[in-house]
Design a protein that fits this description.
The protein is mainly alpha-helical. It contains ten helices and no strands. It is 63% helix and 0% strand.
Length: 163
């Protein structure tokens, strides 16, 4: 089984990241792994989003990041009643799939920043950040513009720019 397709065990994230780096030389596709998706080119990923992810993609993401489904649903803005309907239908809508993809991208980038420490990643994403004007990254990352801000901050932190 390839590293990309295995289910991430959050207790051994450092080992997983090392394997992913050795397999691909980079962790650029980590967000796909968190969703349990194979390595896809952008066009095929867009097609999957437009079709709507299987509900299992959301379940895999929730398990891999070890956050309660209620927090994930809030982050990707899917009300509980809608979540229950999607579970029964087995598929997310395209806009919901896009928000799940964005959340996975943010979590994956933060996980890289914290070198695979999933606990530190979850804590950082749920804590106010001065560089974001005191906003909480998970709260800010509910919109595309907010995701860009959080990713920009992660990039600055990776390069030692703390403001």
């Amino acid at each position: 089984m390839s590293v990309q397709r295995q289910i991430v065990e959050t207790t051994d994230m450092v080992k997983f990241l090392k394997e992913l780096r050795s397999d691909y030389g980079q962790t650029r596709n980590l967000y796909l792994t968190l969703l349990g998706l194979p390595r896809l080119d952008t066009v095929n990923l867009i097609k999957q989003v437009e079709k709507g992810f299987s509900f299992n993609v959301l379940v895999r993401f929730q398990r891999n990041v070890a956050l309660p489904m209620k927090e994930i649903a809030d982050w990707v803005q899917i009300p509980q009643t809608t979540l229950n309907r999607r579970r029964a239908q087995g598929r997310l809508q395209p806009d919901e799939s896009d928000r799940v993809l964005r959340a996975s991208r943010v979590f994956g980038r933060a996980l890289e920043l914290f070198e695979g420490d999933a606990g530190a990643t979850r804590h950082w994403l749920a804590s106010p950040q001065r560089a974001l004007g005191g906003a909480i990254p998970m709260g800010l990352a509910k919109t595309d513009l907010g995701v860009r801000e959080v990713e920009d901050l992660i990039e600055r932190l990776e390069h030692g720019i703390f403001s």
